[in-house]
Amino acid sequence: MAEKTIKCSSGGIALSRIEKGLLTILNCVQFGERLSTHTNEKLLVQILHRSEVRFLKEAMLLELPLTEYGIVVIGDLHGSMLDLLVVLHSIGLPPDVRYLFLGDYIGFGPHQIELIIFILLLKLRWPEHIYMLRGKHETYEVSINDGFRTVCEETFPNTRMFSRFNALFDCMPIAAIISDKIICCHGGISRWMSCRDNIRQIPRPPLIDKMKLLDCCLLADILWANSNAKQSKPFVPSEYDVSYTFNEDALNEVLNALQVTALIRGRSNATNGYVEEFTTKCYAIGTSTDPQNKDVAGAVLGIRRDVACEYHFQPILHRTVNIKGLAFYCRQISAQLEDSFMSDYEAPLGAPTCSRCEIQLKEELQTSTRIISHIEIVDWVLMNAKREVLHDVVYKCLDTNNLPAVARRLVHLFPLYYDLIYSPGGTFRVGLTDGEWTIIQEVYAFGVCPICVDQRVKRAED
């Protein structure tokens, strides 16, 4: 029997419901009660839909001014309400503070639903002070495997809410540029970040069977890329079978192309929650901690600009071992919120009906792939450049039964082959090596179509 569709009562949400919702979540977390016992599904759908509308009014690439009060960037939280509340308690609440979240709100933590709904309500209450980016866990492929689907179905006795959360994720921005100088995202840079418009034009929802191939690659890099200071090549296929890793040379190329000076990203594995991966140019932060390990800290990054227009980055660390408990911080934030509720609220224009309710959550939307993996890239190479692959010197030396090694080689070759086929004499990317440029120029020296490039590719790597 088909599940009954829950719809919003209108296209708006009352301020009183937003503020009560924030306090209700804190109350549930404080006393260890399920959110579903105090909030009906219809209200949660309304919160998700109003948040979707708010996200869709924002660009895929946010461009945020840096006010005199600065901004605080928050990394991976993974369902840890304790880490979030500790940060809010020590730094402050809107409208006194502006926050940019880098994604990974869910995944593994004890309060995944409560945390993301809490941040969404903060955004609905103070939309110009709370900004939320999408992380790799906010995708269908990851969230269905990391336990979030199970959490949704244990909290709500249906499959609807998991689908609705994924519809919300599909609306979220994926990157932000602060003060025209600092790019922020969950994962990292992409060789296809040749200009800002490339990020802006990624469609929503980002379903790979309806997107351009390079848009798919760009999105995967923004959510999944990692840095590796030890690698010699600018970009190397990632061991996660999604995206690439990048070194400092690659970072410099992308920063120049985007006309920015630094990258702030999530995915930090540092024990103090913060690491300056490339001096003054790349900062990685992780905000969630390990309550059982006193050596692991979480961090956020404060950014401000002084009167001389110099930018200052201040990591703010915290630990959740031997501190006052979760109940204490729930009470403290509840009191702080009561004071913050006194600030002005500009209600968005309401509507008699909800536009998001009119969008049916078709099976295609629920299960379509969002993030292109190495598997799809390998398929493309074998379909479009198989002749070149069979003549590739390195490929011919590989054991074809060693599928990971074969896949890594094809994923490595993909950007060059794509340029040779679709950009006669040019390129769609940054961070090319001198050898790659030589190949492109040789192949198109006389304006002819690409021919076998086996020896040329080998020379590019020597």
From TrEMBL:
GO terms (molecular function) for this protein are: metal ion binding; protein serine/threonine phosphatase activity
EC identifiers of the protein: 3.1.3.16
Q: Does the keyword Manganese apply?
A: yes
Q: Which domain of life is it from?
A: Eukaryota
A Pfam family annotated for this UniProt entry: Metallophos
Q: Where is the Serine/threonine specific protein phosphatases domain?
A: 39-317
Catalytic activity line of the entry: O-phospho-L-seryl-[protein] + H2O = L-seryl-[protein] + phosphate; O-phospho-L-threonyl-[protein] + H2O = L-threonyl-[protein] + phosphate
Instruction: Provide the cofactor list for this protein.
Output: Mn(2+)
The protein's UniProt keywords, in alphabetical order, are:
Hydrolase, Manganese, Metal-binding, Protein phosphatase
Please give the InterPro entries that the UniProt record associates with this protein. Calcineurin-like_PHP, Metallo-depent_PP-like, PP1_catalytic_subunit, Ser/Thr-sp_prot-phosphatase
Q: Which GO terms describe its cellular component?
A: cytoplasm; nucleus
Q: What is this protein called?
A: protein-serine/threonine phosphatase
